[in-house]
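Q: My labmate handed me this sequence with no annotations at all. I'd like to see what the chain might look like in three dimensions before we decide whether it's worth expressing. Could you predict it?
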Amino acid sequence: MSDRKQPSALQRLVAEGSDTDIQRFFVLLRPAEIADLVETLPEEERLRVVRLMGAPLASDVLREVQEPELDELLEEMPPDEIAEIVQESRSDDAADLIGSLTPEKAERTLQNLNQEEQQEIRELLEYGEETAGGIMQTELVSVPSDATVALAREAVRVADPKEIGKIYRVYVVDASDRLLGTITPTDLLQADERAPVRLALDPNPITVRVDVDQERIARLARENDVAAIPVIDDAGRLLGQVLHDDIADVLQEEATEDIARLAGTDEEEFYDDSIAVAVRSRASWLFLTFLGGLLVAGFLSSVESDIREKAILAAFLPVVLGMAGNVGTQTSAVTVRSLALGRMDYESWFEPVLRQVSIGLILGAMFGVALFLYAYWRASEDADLVAVTLGLAIFASMSVGAVMGVVVPLVIHRIGFDPAISSSPFIQTTNDLTGAGIIFSVARLTGLI
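A: Here is what I predict for the chain of 449 residues:
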């Protein structure tokens, strides 16, 4: 990572130095570090600096530049310059760049590419953005099944590292491009060079279909400790590969998205410092919470006479509602993350639901006893009824909160939406409503009101 002095150094070079000075500065840094510095520059200076890089370096740098700086850069660049960078990029990065453009500008950029490049990028853009096809690169090393080990070694040797990147797997295919297996470069070096490559391959590699969700790919890579996963179609034909750098991006993207949803905002806020973006991201969730608060207020107004009769219930209401909301939020966060890690799904719901309900019951009992003792000490009249009512209310509310925290994400996941949307604002509002109902229902059952 670049230190805090480097951005100001680049800014001084841009303001006072020559183009040659800036280009020499780039030699000292890695693409990711240059990207960090580019993001710190004033908008009017970024394009000049990117142009000084040249297309080969710019292709590596732009893949590391975050939004909205990347969008601003691409908006300023003419289609022919973008096309030069696209030509230097790997297929997945090229498709991402084109996909970031407006439809009109994307088409004009594609027209600056040759027919083969156009066709490849158009095909990649047809896949869902968050599927294997949307994040795979088509550049890879493959050899026919009748090739010898010596020929496979030669294929690795002549492969362009700029085009393909690091080679983790060599793919063995049949005459119809169906994937038969994979072999690592290390295994190739250790095998007899005269032997058929099919005798040295792994016939059961981890593979994914082209329409598999990117989150599933990241999970497979993590569980099986692989750096490259081949992508195949329904007929088993090899289409491309997903490499570890894209998997790392997916993990970061999914984690950021889940954190944003759990907080009741949008992941765009993490990458854009605009106050307008923050307000827009948060407002919808807060509006739902606001409506929920109005519903709670409406309920409380309907039991206003009961509150006047036993004002102590109103005094302890925030405690009951707060604890129910907190345990619900905790359970929801654990459930959402468990779903993301593949440790829980809708089909095997019983055990995790039972576990979370048990946790809620135990915590509810603990805090129920604590509130019982405190309320008994503080109540000036009907101390026993007040203590029993509040103890039972917080026990029931926290138990219901735990149930809501695990069931709601599972149901949302089952119907095909991101379970993280069942996050803090939604769970908190729901538990406020149920908690308020519980405390006055229990008060009636105990005869306190």
